[in-house]
Amino acid sequence: MAESLTAGVDIGTTSTKTLAYDTEGKIWAERELEYPIYSPDPAWKEQDPYEILRAVEQTLKNVIEDVAKEGKHIGTIGFSAAMHSILAVDDSGEPLTQALTWADQRSVHETEKVKAENGQDIFERTGTPIHPMAPLTKIMWFQKYREEIAAKAAKWISVKEFLFYKWFGEYIVDYSIASASGLFNIHKKQWDDRALALAGITENHLSIPVSTTYHRSDLNKDVCKRLHLQETTTVVIGASDGVLANVGSGALEEGVVACSIGTSGAIRTVIDRPYTDPKGRIFCYALTDELWVIGGPINNGGIALRWMRDKIMPDLKEQCRKNGTDPYDVLTEMAESVMPGSDGLLFLPYMTGERAPFWNSDTKGVFFGLTLHHGREQMVRSVMEGVMMQMYAVVVALIEAGINIKEFRANGGFARSELWKQMMADIFESDIVVPDSHQSACFGAAWLAMTATGQKESLDTIHELIPIETRQSPIMDNVTAYRDLKPIFLRLARNLQSEFSAIADVQRAHAEGKRTLSTEKGEIL
């Protein structure tokens, strides 16, 4: 009989990745498929739920076909998914809206209303910081500006819930995704009545919350036929991508902090109880019935360096194409030519607003300390350092929340860069451990599925399969340089919050003026 493997499916913001694992963590197949984000308005970031469903099914089908060539089959499927997505569906389960992503900023005013009236109370009950990313404020936006859609909405669901409805005909949501909605009471593990009242909905408008280990083995026959799956395949609902990345990188002990930077970034650690920061700086999301993850995401990770490449150095990509070089390698070389601290140039990397620890979507990017001496080399390095200092700001919030940090574990694309890792070690003033773990969220989803189905005794057993690849230690001269700059960075970030809001109001007014002018000219409808 063919050996049974477990598929870990990660439904990300820009792509779905599916990997097949055996019980020793060996990867037997890997597929990925991207999909677009639509932005009909600068503040809107939407996706087509059917495009995501097709990506999930296509990558899974390809993996099933790949492992069949090795004489194996997929017996279990576990899911990871990006947090904070939301869409409305009608009585037949068909979408009334696109799926709004975490990056959608349309509900800025609703967010400010909640903050002003009862934000801390809602945060302490739900563990989700009050921010436009949260489905709570997005539903409030629809209630105010799209009343016809809100009236027709039978359910408000995430992308993963949409998939499960199509596969099983049931509206269910795992505790992890629910706990990132701003609508779920993390202490009672049920929908929160005060948050529901704010959103103008009832429990009947939402899915039934279930454990992240919830599983079913009665897949729709059409799905089995489409994907070449056996009808006995067990599907585990899984959790969110953030908490599962901790599992996949082996960061399962309180004080072992997972650090990742891709397009954005995040700092997370596991605890054994729900906790909400009195200052509202860090989130608290469910991993399992007994484990919770606290930490904070930053909006601007690698995207800030990409802005540097595309906007400040627009000729770089073409030059690199002709030379056969990678633009990011060139940027790294430029940064390496400058001493740590970028000759006193600081960069606040808030190009797309910011989440932790400030949770202010109005924040903007700032170069501070700029002189005639500074050139593109210093600017490139300060952008990279600014991203890492913002990650450090989240670390400070964790420490002030009482977390005794024992170890930093780096994962994500930045962990392949020696310069990024050295910056982290120097700014964090700590060794940085890089586990040999590939696609942590997929691995975490698969491992949780194995645990849920009894193939593994506990999540902790994953430690045995994640060797340490490298360990980066701080350089004391660099540490000294950054000690002079970190307090200035943190003070600037805090003290500019009101000015960020003021300039954001001006920018919105100018953008509205441009739209009005364009409409008068007949350029847009």
Explain what the structure shows.
GO terms for molecular function: kinase activity; phosphotransferase activity, alcohol group as acceptor. Belongs to the FGGY kinase family. InterPro entries: ATPase_NBD, Carb_kinase_FGGY, Carb_kinase_FGGY_CS, FGGY_C, FGGY_Carb_Kinase, FGGY_N. This protein has a domain at 4-243: ATPase, nucleotide binding domain (Nucleotidyltransferase, domain 5), CATH 3.30.420. The strands form seven sheets. Strands 17-18-16-15-21-22-23 form a seven-stranded mixed β-sheet, sandwiched between helices. The termini are far apart. It has 17 helices and 23 strands. With 525 residues, the chain is α+β, with helices and mostly antiparallel strands.
